[in-house]
Amino acid sequence: MKKTIIAIALLVQTLASAQLTDSIKRLVPLKGALNFRDVGGYKTTDGKEVVWGKVYRSAGIDKLTNEDVALLDKKGIHTVVDFRGVAESKAAPDRLPQNTDYTLSPAGSDSIPNPAQMVKLLKEGGFLEKFYGTDAVKYSGDRFRPLFVKLLTTDTKEAVMYHCTGGRDRTGMATALFLYTLNVPEKTIEEDYVASNVYLKKMNKGMMAPLAKMSGLTEAQIENEMALKPELIRSFFAGLKTKYGSIDNFLQQEMGIGPKEINILRKKYTK
After folding, report:
1. pLDDT in tens, 6-61
2. Residues 79, 150: Cα–Cα separation, whole Å
3. Which member of 59, 119, 152, 173 has the lowest number of beta carbons within 10 Å of its beta carbon?
4. Considering just the CA atoms, what is the radius of gyration of the chain in Å?
5. What is the pTM assigned to this prediction?
6. 166 and 87 in contact (C-beta within 8 Å)?
7. How many CB atoms lie within 10 A of CB 44?
8. Distance (Å, whole) CA 89 – CA 141
9. CA-to-CA distance for 70 and 117, rounded, in angstroms?
10. Distance (Å, rounded) from C-alpha 66 to C-alpha 224?
11. Which of 159, 171, 176, 209 lies closest to 35, judged by CA?
């Protein structure tokens, strides 16, 4: 078990390293939020680059300071899509600049396991594999459609930001779909995805001990179960392909994102 955990950790670190090399430019220095980063700068398979300063992803933003809110305003972030559930969002309301276009898109999030249920799933093993499986495919259309509507319609002078609580799972899947539409290579998508392990290290550390105590598992076992791995995002994409035949079919059927819309997204968010 120990060797397996070390091997996985090394793999994740290797995949994340390329993404983390530009973290000074990518990570937004906020005092009240973690994992708040620019999705720009990635190279596409057709020789272009995702534009900087137009699309951001984050963990919870309920604890932003006044200075943080002012920075969002300065960056033109006045369109926010929140993937949390209804109760989840009410318990920790977003702090946002004035006149922000806020959309709560809670599809599937109200059924996310509570701590007791999570402990049971962790003891059974394969917790995240299940999360990225049937449920992810079932709710993805309703969950991510509002984001793509905003991406298509927001003024080019403005920026779009989306988030959940940890900014890793729901937010990670949304980012993977967005980068996919822009022709970003799968390896780069995976690097962006697993980088949350590093950006959320402080928060994750505080979660491991209580979960270990509740479950009877070691902190190392909990960390292994909860770590983001490339296989998870691959499983998500594979599930979409199984149900819809291809990711493009999913985008067209569930999101209304066909060739015309993809062309608009690429023109708008790559150069």
Report:
1. 444 444 454 455 556 677 789 999 999 999 999 999 999 999 999 999 999 999 99
2. 8
3. 152
4. 18
5. 0.91
6. no
7. 18
8. 20
9. 38
10. 36
11. 171
